[in-house]
Design brief:
The complex is a heterotrimer of chains A (293), B (118) and C (231). Chain A has two domains: 3-205, 3-Layer(aba) Sandwich (Rossmann fold); 217-284, Alpha-Beta Plaits, CATH 3.30.70. Chain A has eleven helices and 13 strands. Chain A has helices at residues 43-50, 72-75, 93-103, 109-118, 132-145, 162-178, 190-193, 214-220, 228-235, 259-267, 277-284, and strands spanning 3-14, 17-28, 32-37, 58-63, 78-81, 150-154, 182-187, 199-204, 207-213, 221-227, 239-246, 249-255, 271-274. A six-stranded mixed sheet of chain A has the order 5-6-7-3-8-9, sandwiched between helices. In chain A, helix 4 packs antiparallel against helix 5. Chain B is mainly α. A three-stranded antiparallel sheet of chain B has the order 1-3-2. Chain B is elongated, with a radius of gyration of 18 Å. Chain C has 231 residues and is mainly α. Chain C has nine helices and no strands. In chain C, helix 2 (15-40) packs antiparallel against helix 3 (54-78), helix 4 (82-113) runs antiparallel to helix 9 and helix 6 (134-187) crosses helix 9. The chains are: A alpha/beta (293), B mainly alpha (118), C mainly alpha (231). The A-C interface holds A 48, 51-54, 70-72, 75-76, 78-82, 85-92, 95, 98-100, 102-105, 142, 148 and C 1-3, 6-7, 9-10, 13-14, 17, 66, 70-71, 73-84, 230-231.
Chain lengths: 293, 118, 231
């Protein structure tokens, strides 16, 4: 699988605030990535730099071998749908779609129209008069119908109800199966996208703390519950992320528990609990909320 | 979809279960990767991983341009494997729980006999 | 299809606003002026030019400014480069300038042919521009249109790059620069010279010739400003 994006030692500062701190990773072709992290972790900034909206303060970004800044040939193959997408004042929904069709060489008009029907978007309504959810849906339609080989969705769920979100995921997966491309989704709703995402990039206060296959990550974090002494013994063989106690029962969330330790746990009467991807991510993020699951 | 095993493993297990209980016959065609992905609402790559595990195991084979099919002898092979795993998977937890409750081996055997004739 | 042509198509998506809106405003202004003029009568007006022509120039300034304000974030935000956007926008405003300039020229021609629309009103031709050679007359209308367009785009670019602070800074800088020049001229007792120079220039050289200088400067300046703006 070829590399389509390389990010190397990227730093981005805004005045005295460091939004991205030595971030390095690469993206493969035809893979769905989840870009996760808390508010203010740097996800949007990173997406903007990858898409040539912002320049990095230092470090290197290469998309399809070149810097994305002001390179028309590269950007023609990219699409960034932002959470606060701005549209020209007098545009109606059909104008927005037509304009997008001019910008993306791979635009699929029939697909766009079917998506408009799916999301029940009013074609002749002015974009500025749309509800938050419909506004987001317009962005989603543009992102999906663009068929851009590199498509980025920055928090594409704002204002969407659960039904619409599921519709988005379903359409995304269906299109991805027929027309694979590299997709990067940034989101808070980790559990919802856990089954879509192949690879996870987790940002925490500007630093990349996880760059791993989703399945591997899910298996890498475990919660063990049992008597304190037994838990301590098992916990020693991994990295402890979190601990909670009630009465004689202790639960510890661990990273990197090997098979031998798992075997010992069973013998000691310590139960192993699988964690969802969201729980694993929350545990791995520094300052995960106390006592939350 | 559970949390305790990777999704691709669960996909493979579901197909294995269908082969074992006979609903998926030998030489029958298995749903395509995209169909499975759409049905389970998962990434096609994950579905493909599950299928490939079974192909590597010899449970499924690929007919180029057509799709995936159940290998002859797959059912027997899977049943044998499950039998081999049975004691580890099911007996061990049974014994552990029984020990917790203070049930002896003979009490367990009596329970099993009663179960057969219930 | 080049990247510039792509942005041109985007800018013309809602073609009413791009190509017809300023003309509509002008026509409304014209009709209003005509009705009032016809009611009041030729004798009551000292100078029969109503000044309504300025409306299309002001609207074009606003439209150009809005062109940047509204389309930049959308177009460059999705996947256009700033360069493609700017060249596309420049092409569009120049085309608008030619289009509207010719439209006004046509109006002036009809005005002359109908002797002021039958009521002696001068709306399209304030200073007998039509006395000039046809091409010169057209340029007298077109170049100022290009000037206000480039000014509008420049202001829009300043806003996108530096926001409200940018407008403030730009206004301040303009006051300092032009005020400074005015002070300098006063110190050199140069106003009479400046005044007579302007009077000596024909409408053609002023409006179609010298006006090109700030137009080009603003055009280049706008490009430089927008180069680092964030969509």
């Amino acid at each position: 699988m070829s590399t389509v994006v390389e990010v190397d030692g990227v730093v981005r500062r805004f005045g005295r605030m460091t939004a991205l701190d030595e971030v390095s990773f690469s993206l493969r072709a035809n893979t769905i990535y989840g870009l996760l992290g808390r508010n203010g972790a740097g996800k949007s900034t990173l997406m903007q730099i990858m898409n040539g909206h912002l320049l990095a303060t230092s470090g290197r970004v290469a998309v399809l071998g070149e810097s994305p800044w002001e390179r028309a040939a590269v950007r023609a193959r990219m699409c960034l749908v932002r959470e606060n997408q701005l549209y020209p004042d007098q545009f109606r929904v059909h104008h927005a779609l037509r304009a997008a069709s001019f910008l993306f060489p791979g635009w699929d008009e029939a697909y766009a129209q079917s998506l408009v029907d799916d999301f029940q978007l009013p074609r002749s309504r002015q974009v500025k008069k749309l509800s938050r959810g419909m506004l987001t849906a317009v962005g989603i339609v543009i992102g999906l119908a663009s068929r851009a080989p590199l498509t980025f969705f920055d928090e594409p769920y704002v204002g969407l109800d659960a039904v619409a979100r599921q519709l988005f995921y379903d359409r995304l997966l269906a299109d991805y199966a027929e027309h694979p491309r590299t997709i990067v989704l940034s989101t808070h709703l980790i559990d919802e996208v856990a089954n879509l995402v192949e690879h996870v990039l987790l940002l925490d206060r500007g630093r990349l703390i996880v760059d791993d296959d989703a399945d591997h990550l899910r298996g890498a974090v475990t919660a063990i519950t049992g008597p304190a002494a037994a838990v301590d013994r098992i916990a020693a063989s991994g990295t402890e992320l979190h601990r909670a106690t009630v009465g004689t029962l202790t639960r510890a969330t661990l990273r990197g528990l090997d098979d031998a330790a798992r075997g010992t746990a069973a013998e000691l009467g310590v139960t192993l609990e699988p964690l969802s991807l969201q729980q694993a991510i929350v545990s791995l993020t520094a300052n995960g909320m106390e006592g939350s699951r | 979809m559970d949390d305790d095993r990777p999704i691709f493993v669960q996909i493979a297990e579901q197909i294995e279960n269908a082969i074992i209980d006979g609903s998926l016959a030998e030489e029958a065609q298995v749903p395509s990767t995209n169909e499975l992905a759409a049905f389970h609402r998962i990434n096609p790559a994950t579905a493909a991983k599950g299928i490939n595990e079974l192909v590597d195991d010899g449970i499924l084979y690929k007919k180029r341009g057509i799709g995936m099919f159940v290998s002859p002898g797959a059912r027997a092979r899977l049943q044998q494997r499950r039998r081999d795993q049975f004691s580890e998977r099911y007996l061990r937890p049974l014994i552990v729980e029984a020990t917790k409750l203070g049930l002896t081996a003979s009490e367990l055997k009596a329970m099993i006999d009663k179960w057969e004739t219930r | 299809m080049t990247s510039t042509l792509r942005t041109v198509r985007v800018l013309l998506t809602n073609w009413y606003w791009a190509l017809l809106f300023p003309v509509t405003i002008l026509l409304v202004s014209f009709v209003v002026n005509l009705v009032i003029f016809a009611a009041i009568g030729r004798a009551a007006m000292q100078n029969s030019w109503t000044g309504g022509l300025a409306s299309i120039y002001l609207v074009q300034l606003a439209v150009s400014w809005a062109g940047v304000r509204q389309h930049f974030s959308f177009t460059v935000g999705l996947n256009a480069t700033r360069r493609a956007f700017y060249s596309g926008l420049t092409l569009v405003v120049l085309a608008q300038s030619v289009l509207f300039g010719l439209f006004v020229y046509l109006g002036a021609w009809i005005e002359r042919a109908t002797d002021g629309w039958g009521v002696g009103m001068k709306f399209f031709d304030p200073a007998s521009f039509l006395d000039h050679h046809a091409l010169s007359a057209m340029l007298i209308y077109i170049v100022p249109m290009a000037l206000v367009s480039c000014f509008g785009v420049f202001v829009g670019a300043v806003g996108k790059r530096w926001g409200t602070f940018g407008f403030f800074g730009f206004s301040l800088a303009s006051i300092v620069v032009f005020g400074g020049i005015a002070v300098l001229i006063s110190l050199l007792h140069g106003w009479p010279a400046v005044g007579s120079w302007f009077v000596d220039q024909s409408a053609l050289s002023l409006l179609a010739g010298w006006a090109l200088v700030p137009t080009v400067l603003l055009g280049l300046g706008g490009s430089a400003v927008l180069r680092r703006a964030i969509p």
